[in-house]
Amino acid sequence: MSPPRPGDARAERLLADHLAVFPGAHAPVPVEEIAEDLLGLRVHLRRGLRVSGMLVPDRRAVYLNADEAPVRRRFTLVHELGHWVVHCAGAAAPPRILCRSDETTGSADVREREANVFAATLLMPEAGLAAGVADGLSVADLAAAYGVSGVAMAWRLYNVGLGPQPSAG
Ligand SMILES: [Zn+2]
């Protein structure tokens, strides 16, 4: 049972930058446009990848596993954007390659956790969730609106103080 975690200010700034250029709808967050237009990364879909996703900083490229469900691919993309913003941009010696896989998902690795917090913050903006909850939307409604899994949405609501702690498992 971990206490609520704060979001990532860099993810909030990125979303604000995007909304300044493209005002309007907040849900779902246009993650591919943010990757390509705002961060200058190329997003490639690949079949047969052995991981969910992979960031190659030298090539400014993200590779996503085309065999996985769109909702998972979306989270993977933003997880890799988190690696780019938090661990690569401006770093003297950025990592050569960063992956997301089933092994890294529950990992205690600080970088993996930071990338996941970044992803949750960018994909599920707190202000939008607060408005949705005030309008009486359910966790499932919000998950569908933001293009994330119900589990991810339930945890995000809990972490920003808008929902009960999800039961384990
Ligand atoms: Zn990762």
List the defining traits of the structure above.
single chain, 169 residues, alpha+beta, Arc Repressor Mutant, subunit A, 2 domains, four-stranded mixed beta sheet, 8 helices, binds zinc ion
Q: Gap between N and C termini, in Å?
A: 12 Å
CATH architecture of the largest domain: Orthogonal Bundle
Proportion of β residues?
Answer: 5-15%
Name the hetero compounds present. Answer: zinc ion
Write the layout of secondary structure elements.
Layout: H1 9-21, H2 31-38, E1 42-46, E2 53-56, E3 61-65, H3 70-88, E4 98-100, H4 102-105, H5 110-123, H6 126-134, H7 139-146, H8 150-159
Parallel strand pairs: 1-3
Antiparallel strand pairs: 2-3, 2-4
The structure holds zinc ion (ZN).
Can you put this structure into words, describing what you see?
- It is a single chain.
- With 169 residues, the chain is of the alpha+beta class.
- It folds into 2 domains: 115 residues, Arc Repressor Mutant, subunit A; 39 residues.
- The protein is built from 8 helices and 4 strands, in the order ααβββαβααααα.
- The protein has a 4-stranded mixed beta sheet with strand order 1-3-2-4.
- Strand 2 and strand 3 form a beta hairpin.
- Helix 7 packs across helix 8.
- The protein is globular and about 45 Å long.
- The site of zinc ion has 7 residues, from helix 3, strand 4 and helix 5.
- Zinc ion binds next to helix 3, strand 4 and helix 5.
